[in-house]
Amino acid sequence: MKIAMKTPLVEIDGDEMTRVLWAAVKETLLEPFVELKTECYDLSVTERDKTGDRVTGEAAEAILRYGVGVKCATITTTEARLKEYGLARLYPSPNATIRAALDGTVFRSPILLPSVRPAVSTWTEPVVIARHAYGDVYRAAEMAVDGPGKAELVWTGADGSERRISVADMPGGGVLQAMHNLDTSIESFARSCFRYALDARLPLMFAAKDTISHVYDGRFREIFDAVSAEYADRFAAAGITYFYTLIDDAVARVVKGRGGILWACKNYDGDVMSDMVASACGSLAMMRSVLVSPSGAYEFEAAHGTVQRHYYRYLNGEKPSTNPAALIFAWTGALSKRAELDRVAELAAFARNLEQAVIGTIESGSMTADLQAISSLKPDKALDSWAFLEKIAERMRGERI
Ligand code: NAP
Ligand code: MG
User: pLDDT tens across 181-240, in order?
Assistant: First the structure.
């Protein structure tokens, strides 16, 4: 008897190697065990082109409606892709469109393996990074100037009022930058972080530099403090804490700590620190990613892209050794969230077992090439993606426990 689902989740298909693996994961590891109920959206680049990108907006709306989605990696269009696929025009990144529609925050967390030691030897639990995805230097206005002059920051209110402060008297040429953020965006970010911390039962740390940036970073800190007051009872009941610290101290704590923390980062810090955590943990293919809206909608995905280079080898008739682990964990994340919301214990257990089967398979020495290169088990050969999936399926069927 297959496990039944009560409510559908939103399934978003994508491009290239991850699209090929998406179908293989479903066929080998999901459909034999679960009566999948999904509402499907095809976000392949050709389908986005055909619909003038309408399908991306529809997929985002569906995630808000159902509360849970799982997404395959998708091509972000570039001039090269425009030619390759004969597209009518360039489209915004689907992830950016969905993130904006959900007003969401992305949380990234590495899947740790006993046989792959992180570069930071004290980490025994994942360091989860939340990156604020709006504003700061990513939406800054910049200017290069020649010769002497003075720089000022001017605010013109909608009512016509004006505020002006001096930035610097510049004796010679130089560069200027002005950045901004919005209270509403910072508040949504904070809310998504508190929600995620509660779900994952992780202590939450927010870090900035408010000793230097009293107003800008100070505002972030105030908003986090205000939202933390709303969550105080629930955090206490869950036995977790929220704290603010300076970004310098945060870096030191994370590098000396054992992991097991949610680190809320401003946009730039999150960009840099999520790459640091990913490389310190070994493989991009072992990084999970989930977009959480402040209203409580979740979209699970792998952190990596469509693995284009492997796809071209696949098109040439090869069987690449692409690691499907993060795609599988995207599905287990979505299924267990669905199970939690619908209270379906068997589905939650299935998701847990599948995650354990993936780890167990790797730890028994069956793995893809990216892991073979870094695992202390040093297996003689790497498996292609399909052979690896089959090994996991054997475990799920109880043939090899
Ligand atoms: P990528 O797909 O993440 O792959 C970069 C390299 O990382 C691969 O060539 C491969 O290295 C390694 N890698 C990534 N995932 C792997 C896996 N599962 N198993 C084994 N190795 C893996 O990044 P990209 O090549 O820069 O981008 C390709 C396309 O993906 C682009 O069109 C981009 O727009 C899109 N993208 C989408 C998302 C998303 O939808 N979330 C995110 C990022 C990029 P080796 O070749 O050395 O084996
Ligand atoms: Mg980065």
Answer: 999 999 999 999 999 999 999 999 999 999 999 999 999 999 999 999 999 999 999 999
- Of 288, 304, 323, the residue with max ligand 1 atoms within 8 A of its CB, to mutate for a pocket test, comes to 304
In the reported structure, the alpha carbon of residue 44 is separated from the centroid of ligand 2 by a whole-number distance in angstroms of 24
Is residue 365, in this structure, part of any structural domain at all? yes
* Same domain as 123, residue 272: yes
Q: What share of the chain is helix, strand, coil (3-state, %, to 5)?
A: 45, 20, 35
Q: Looking at 212, 247, 281, which one is the last position of a domain? A: 281
| 290 and 237 in a common domain | no
CA atoms within 13 A on the CB side of 9: 30
Ligand 1, atom 30: closest residue by C-alpha: 305
Do 206 and 86 share a structural domain?
Answer: no
Dist CA 24 CA 32 (whole Å): 12
State CA 275 to chain mean position distance. Answer: 11
The Å distance, Cα 74 to ligand 1 centre, comes to 10
What is d(CA 257, CA 232) in angstroms, rounded to the nearest whole number?
A: 24
Asked whether residue 122 falls in the same domain as residue 248, the answer is yes
pLDDT tens per residue, range 279-292: 888 788 999 999 99
pLDDT tens for 319-355 read: 999 999 999 999 999 999 999 999 999 999 999 999 9
For ligand 2, the distance from its centroid to the CA atom of residue 329, given in whole angstroms, is: 22
The token pair that represents 51 in the structure block: 């619909």
